[in-house]
From TrEMBL:
It comes from Paeniglutamicibacter psychrophenolicus. It comes from the Bacteria. The keyword Transmembrane applies. Pfam families: MFS_1. This is MFS family permease.
Amino acid sequence: MSEQPFSLRRIAVKVYSPSLLYGVGLGAVTPVIALSALDRGATLATAALVVTLVGFGSLIFNVPAAMLTTRMGERWAMVMAAGWASLGLVLGIIPSNLGLFSVGVTMLGMAGAVFNLARQAYLAEAVPLEFRARAMSSLGGIHRVGIFIGPFAATLAMKWLDIAGAYWVGMAAMAVAMVVCLGIPDLESRAPVEEGQSRAGGSMWSIAKDHKHVLLGLGLGVICLSAVRSTRQVVLPLWGESIGLDAATISLIYGLSGAVDMLIFYPAGKIMDRYGRMWIAVPSMIVMSVAMVLLPMAHSVPTMLAVAMLLGFGNGVGSGIVLTLGVDYSPVSGRAKFLGLWRQLSDTGAMAGPVLLSGLVAVATLASGVWAIAGISMLGAGIFGYFIPRTKIRIDAPVAGEEYDHRPSAGQGDA
């Protein structure tokens, strides 16, 4: 009896609904974290620092998340992460002090590290190679849709429950995500493990050492991409304020940029599956670099809107590229641990980008900082162009092996 052909649409609800719900929960509370910190006695500088604890929690927990996912399996790791995030959100509802509230924000970042790694590893096992980029792009895109929806749901709840309403929405979304994850079936891997090896793989150190060429080479491109993406969220509001736009106009421009971002994730994945990863990774970085170069030249609403939408387009084109490359280069034995290291690189870039911008603005100007980020984006384009092969993926390539023809050859970095 022949095996039923794979259909991404057939598994979409079970695979993507937890990511949508988790995104809604995260999006609901992100805009009010700083306000909640101010209500608990924080200064403006301290409130800004509290917001960064989400990223900090993810950064410090990527490696433990890999160990946890390896031990518990992807499904139960996602269940536990959603539950842990819910507990963190409780500290936003109860009248806690600033220290306890900060712990809750950090817990949200820790939960994100586990949930995001587990969902990526789960999808890597659920989807065959020829659909991988579309699946990963859709995963990233659906998560962004959730983050986009979250603030609107929180706004409705806050009409009756004040600022605590945002946390109630977040908790409800996380609780439903936890229940949905409980209903996801466990998967048997499509990819066989080599004789004498286990799926858990070796230690984190041994996996890092065995894949050092990928992590130190292509991983640098991931750091650049993540730095540009995280800085993009900062430079648009800052530049809008610097040219005298009001908060409502800046918010509208930012929202339209995000809308463009969300609209193109599936076509981007289809191009990666059909023509190769490089044909998305490199153009994405170049477009964002061009947009960053043009931003300091925008001095009106129409010009800034045009640049913001170009920036959103560049980011949207690259939707799922980090997830896809992580799975492409991950070994079957120890996949979750490799992905934990991969996410560590991504989070490092996401934390470093705004810090670099802040430092440059302090010693020079906002425009010089934006142009420096444009240079980092071009550096990332060059790294991706060098390390990612230009060849089309063979649809009949074995899922388990390290013989995909979209992997770099020895002459391209020994990855």
